[in-house]
Every structure is written in structure tokens, then in C-alpha cells.
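Reopening: Oligoendopeptidase F still failing for me.
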Amino acid sequence: MSQAKSINYYKELIDLKDVEGIEAQFQRLLDVSIESIHDLENWIEDEKSLRFEIEEALTGHLVDFYRNTEDPHIKSTYLQDQQVIQPLLMTYEAKLNDKCCESPYFNELDENRYGLMKRFRESKVKLFRKENIPLLVKEQELCTKYSEIMGGLTVEWDGEEKPFPFIESQLDNLDRNVREKAYHLIRAAYRQIKPDTDALMDELVQLRHQIAINAGFENYRDYMFVAKNREYSIEDCYDFHENVEKHIIPAWNRLADVFKSKLGVETYLPWDNTAKLLKNPPYAETSELLDGVAEMLGKTDPYFSDRLLYMREHGLLDLGDRKGKSPGGFCVPLPVSGDTFVFANFSPSFFSLIALIHEMGHAVNGYLQASEQGPIEEFQWRAEIAELYSHGMELLLLDKFNLFYPEEEEFKSAQREELRRAFTMLFGPLSGDLFQHWMYTNPQHTAKERDEKFYEISKRYGLSPVDTTGFEEVIGMSWIGTLHFIQYPFYDIEYSMSMLGALQLLENYQKNPQQAVEFYKKGASADYSQSIAAIYKETGVDFDFSESTVKRMGEFLEKVIQDINS
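Support: Ran it again with your exact input. Result attached.
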């Protein structure tokens, strides 16, 4: 497939270079006379159709850029979207929101069908400031720069230039010396790009702080809680941080003792805090990864494997590592096509196996949602829901890792590693959330203070059982490798919240596998205009991150690991 023209997997029903034509379509919507509740509902549908056409083209261009950050044609198209189309969308979105909210029929819209949309539009109206448009465009330019920096990052390994994901995959190596070598090379690479990423983050923090000030908020953290229409408070997040530190970290320290014993080491060092008890990567070629995951999905539910096979056949997957690809992995919906695309920058490793399963959870969710309710609109997309089905898919497949690890002890080790990951998903994103609370409520911090704070929080949470003596500096700067901090601010704690739901799903699966899978599919296809709690309930679990639930799920997770070890 051509890297420059990838329209095989997305539809360009609208020419984003025809700026005047796009403006004319928006203006026609603004000029429509709304004389009844029926007129308003029809207008909302027409607006949605136009937005979906634009969104699909924008998404396709974004994926093209992530797949090849070095292609000048692709980069030019992507930058034109960011510098020209996005400001246009922001301007007209504000006008369309005003028109909708000011309609005398707005409050007559059915609350069950339109309630979430109404709240979303009202918050958009509250937040919009014309002077923020150029700041938001600049923010996207800085995010693009980060993708280019990371996409071009390579490391020399045994005399060969290797893509960065390859070096990261060596952290899973059974040989402790290899893990240590990879760890130091990764940190050396971070040190090389640190001046640029420090400058970039400094600028982003100031930019985002100004966006918040312009919108009438004291800081960007408070602004983002309104922008995300969160169904919980800032104080709830701080309570969650505390509950996990109180109940999950002690369990994590106990688990570390198990791993230390199995490794035969007295001191748990930073390069031991990885998936390092598996002898070999689970696959050698991407085709093997796809074959194996398809079989795992099929043994869980035929629909799940059908979606992977369909995506594979229609060019909706790009998983391998290569120079010029952006780091990370994601699944994005294509609202006009009704498809999803999974992007990842993988080298063979246990993590890449889990990451594909994770992204297939998102994909299955997207396909079920589209087939039952239609494409997910922006106001319906909430990470607390989306991540429930990605984490949930990982745990539903826990009993099928023997397809990649047929030897009994290797199979148990793989299960332990997935459950270890469940632990890290309870405290890792949460510690990242706490880090961002600090960054954006202390916007005048220095790069040195930022590194020190990241080290301090990391030591309180994930690195609690690790001897970090002498590694304070390199750990402090390792926030560089977390793209969420740059590109998706305050998208972190949702992973931890949804993991509590996914563990409840595993608990249900152990009691009745078929029923748990049916609940999963029911929730994944539910009406997303409902509250988060209602959708969790349709999935057979509770949206609850209270102290009692954190403690109970931590104990359940420890028990499952003990059962595997017995």
C-alpha cells in the first residue's frame, strides 16, 4: 500500500484542500431556519453527517502521518489539516454550538437521546474563546514535532542501527545483562533528545495554561475537567490516588518479592521491573502474531476473531516497526466507512502481543457500537468506557496464552506477566495523572523540578520495590517516553478506573465465561449517550473506584496470581 495515498482504508468524501467549499457547507448549516423540534433534529443529523466526512478524512491523514513521519507529501497534508482545517473547524463549531444551544427548541430535545450531547455543547460554548484558536493550533504543531522526534529515534545495537521499539523490546529479555544494556541505551537516547523535549514540554505547559486562563480558569487541570465532561470530581481523583497507594502498592511490593525469588536476585533493579521471565518473544514475524491472536479471539467468541480477520484483509492494520514510524499504538474509528484502524510500532515482545489484544478490544467495541448504534460521536467518546473493553479483552484472553506459550511453566509466566500488567495499570496511569495535576497547577515549574517530581511520584508507586540508587536522574527524565503527557493531556487515570471494571469482568468470567462474554458484547454495543455507570452496569460490572472496591480488586488480583503460582 502506498504510504502517500492510503485511501484504500478510509474515504475522502470531502476535499480538505477546498477550504472555500468546506466553509460554504458550514455556512449553509448556519443559514438553515429551525422552526420546530423536528427541524432541529434534522439539522443535528445534517451537521453530524458533515462532521463525520471531515473527521474520516482528518483521521486518515493523521494515520498516514504516523505511519511515515518522514514523507514530505504526507507531512504537508497533515500540517495543512492542523494549520488550516482545524482552526476553521474550531470557528464554525463554536457558531454551530451557539445556534443549537440558542434554539428555542433546544430544551425540548429528548433527554435520553440528546442529554449528553446537550451537556457537551453547553460546555463547549462555555469554554470557547476565539483567542484560543491559534494557541490550539500551536499545541498541535508541538505534538507533531514530538512525533517527528520520536519517530526518527534509533539506537545502535551490536553495530546495527535499530528502531527504538526494538531496543524497548529487549527489556523483556531473559538475560539480565541484555536488559541492563537496553535500559542504559534507552536512557542515553532520552538524554540525547532531552533538550528538545524539555523545550517542547515547557512551551506546551505555558500554552495550555494560557488557554485555561483565557477561558476563565485558574489552571489547565480545572479547564480539562470541564472540557472532558468528567462524571467525577478532582477530589475523587485525589482520593483514588490515595486508595491505590494505600492498598495496591503494598500488594505490588509483595508481588515484587515473588519476582525477585524467581529471578534469583537480591536487589530489584530498574531493568528487572519488566516482563523478563519469558524465555523468548512470543513470535518472530507479524504474521505469526496476527495468526495467534486471531485464534485466541476465536476461542473466546467467533465475532472477535472475525473482526481481526476482516481488518487484516482490508488493510486496517499496521503493526511492524520501522524507521520513520511514530511511537506507540492506537485504534481509531472511521465513522463514514464504519471501520476501525489499528496502528502500532511493534518489535516482537510480550508487550506487543498484549498491545494488539488491547487494541483489538477497542476495535471490537467500535464495530459492535457502529453495528448497533451507529458511529460514536465526539461527545459520546469517553475513555473510561473505551478502556474497559480494551483491558477487558486482555483479561478475557488470559486463559489462552498457551497458544503462544505451549509449555506449562511458560504459560503460567505469561499469565503472571499479564496480571502484573493489571497491577501496573492500576497505579501506572494513576501516577501519571498525579504528575499532570502537579505540572498544570504549578505551570512555572522548571525542567529540573519536573524531573524531580516525576521521580518522586514514580518511586511512590511503580518503583516502590525497586532499588533506584544512582538512577534518580535517568528515571526523572523518563517521562519523555510517555506520549500521553505530550499529545493526550489528562488521558491517564481512565486506564486505572477501567482496570477495576476489567478485573470485575475477569471475576465474572471465572464464574461463567459465556455469560461474561455476552455482558462484554452487550456493554460494548450499548447506547453511549448513557452515563458511564449505566454502561458499566450493562457490562455486568460497577463503575466504582472507592476505597472498598480498590482494596477488594487488589486482593482478587493477588489471589489470581497465587492460584497460578500454586
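The chain has three domains: 19-128, 143-276+426-487, 286-425+495-537. If you still see a failure, please send the error message rather than a screenshot.
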